[in-house]
Amino acid sequence: MSTAHALLGLLDRSPAYGYSLKQDYDTLLAPERPLAFGQVYASLARFERQGWAEILSVETGSGPERKLYGITEDGVTELETWIYSPQATGAFSASTLFSRVSLALLSGRDAQEVLTAQRQSHMVRMRELTARRRDAAPGLMLQLDYELTHLDADLRWIEEAGARLDALREHWNTAPESSTEHDEEHS
Predict the structure, then answer these.
(1) Of 57-61, 72-76, 134-138, which has the strongest mean pLDDT?
(2) What is d(CA 64, CA 61) in angstroms, rounded to the nearest whole number?
């Protein structure tokens, strides 16, 4: 998720101070991965430079100035472009799990052990999420269902990969050592 765009989306709901944006982000979008205050204020400063947000008022008092930010028309346009643009499908192929399993196979390590450990980790997480669903508010329910669905898809991939490990190991052990060696043979 683009954290900056998520903050811009929260700012679209109503003008806000940096502190309240962070609270909304943490509560509504990422309750298990709280955002650092520095990231919020850096994003707000960038929004202002890019013309996506403007300072509506500044309150002074005993502490630091409190700036109330509002989204601009350019910010709304940027937000709508981001919201309605499909996520790049390649984002799913960049899995570290796929890389770890592949490298375990290529290096002669136990790829099944990698899959087994990941399966166990996924199962623990799925039980936690399922328990949290019982009393979840609708917004949190949507987030929990999203994560559960992705974990379920990962589990299916783990099962399929486990069934193919021997064939992959055999294929990669008989394949050329590397693409560099292959390129040198044809030059």
Answers:
(1) 72-76
(2) 7
